[in-house]
Design goal:
Organism: Cohaesibacter celericrescens
Order of helices and strands: EEHEEHHEEHEEHHEHEHHHH
Strand content: 15-25%
CATH class of the largest domain: Alpha Beta
Shape: globular
Largest sheet: 6 strands, mixed
Strand order of the largest sheet: 1-2-3-5-7-10
Distance between the termini: 33 Å
Number of domains: 2
CATH architecture of the largest domain: Alpha-Beta Complex
Radius of gyration: 20 Å
Pfam family, one: ECH_1
InterPro entries: ClpP/crotonase-like_dom_sf, Enoyl-CoA_hydra/iso, Enoyl-CoA_hydra_C, Mitochondrial_ECH-domain
Function: May play a role in fatty acid biosynthesis and insulin sensitivity.
CATH topology of the largest domain: 2-enoyl-CoA Hydratase, Chain A, domain 1
Protein name: Enoyl-CoA hydratase domain-containing protein 3, mitochondrial
CATH superfamily of the largest domain: 2-enoyl-CoA Hydratase, Chain A, domain 1
Length: about 270
């Protein structure tokens, strides 16, 4: 993405191509920081995408050289002059961000981060929260809050659910940047590609996913996140129940019939 859009335009631009809806963060001058405006715009557009039956996959992208620089520190610092020294506003911003991240996890549609540049602090949190993430060779990632006396506690939630604990702790306590290939090795991103192929690769993933059973994806995504923090026995109890319900669904009946008949499935959930 290029920074060709005016700052007077929406904080998030929406582009629909078939079943793929791309939400493009559009505040390159402020490094697409998760300001109050940006988070409200993202939350609104995610909700719109979730309620649109024609949309099957959501991509979160950005204009400019930076994907997302985390919270807007100037916006936060300006509220230190409030009577409560900013406590209420700080709490509001952190709750808003936490709600946004949970909305991504809880929506039944797959969300892909298309990372064309650097992602730091809550920006890295956004990448780690998305179901899939594809970045370019030039991307860097870090949780630098510790360098300014502000431990990245909310980004830690997504980070520790995406990477091994030792690697997560190293990033959190050093604040050092890692490059794209280290981020892939850690599990923050799925693929690292040249910049000129970023959209092509993201669209390939999105198009392939959009052709799957919407019903199966809904079952699968919800269960994936629910079982991840369960003990082994509880996880198997949950997934056995979900598999049973999934088997009874019309998409499963059609999909299995199509497989046995060696034909393409005609998913009822996509009609």
């Amino acid at each position: 993405m290029t920074a060709t859009n005016s700052e007077q335009e929406s904080a998030v631009l929406v582009e629909q191509v078939g079943p793929i809806r791309r939400l493009i963060m559009n505040r390159p001058k402020s490094r697409n920081a998760l300001s109050e405006e940006m988070m409200e715009a993202l939350a609104k557009e995610l909700d719109n995408a979730n309620n649109d039956d024609a949309t099957r996959v959501v991509v979160i992208a950005a204009n400019g050289p930076v994907f997302c620089a985390g919270h807007n520190l100037k916006e936060l610092t300006a509220r230190r002059s409030d009577p409560d020294h900013g406590r209420h506003y700080f709490a509001l911003i952190m709750r808003t961000c936490s709600t946004l991240m949970q909305a991504i996890v809880n929506m039944p549609k797959i969300v892909i981060a298309e990372v064309q540049g650097t992602a730091t602090a809550a920006g890295l949190q956004l990448v780690a929260t998305c179901d899939l993430a594809i970045c370019v060779n030039e991307s860097n990632f870090c949780t630098p809050g510790v360098n300014i006396g502000l431990f990245c506690s909310t980004p830690m939630v997504a980070l520790t659910r995406a990477v091994p604990r030792k690697q997560a702790m190293e990033m959190l306590v050093t604040g050092e940047e890692i490059d794209a290939h280290t981020a892939k090795a850690y599990g923050i991103v799925n693929r690292v590609v040249p910049l000129e192929y970023l959209r092509l690769v993201v669209d390939k993933y999105a198009t392939e996913i959009a052709q799957k059973s919407a019903h199966a994806l809904k079952f699968g995504k919800e269960t994936f996140y629910r079982q991840a923090d369960m003990n082994l026995a509880d996880a198997y109890d949950l997934t056995s129940l979900v598999m049973t319900e999934n088997m009874l669904a019309a998409d499963s009946e059609e999909g299995i019939s199509a497989f046995l008949a060696k034909r393409s499935a005609d998913w009822p959930s996509l009609k």
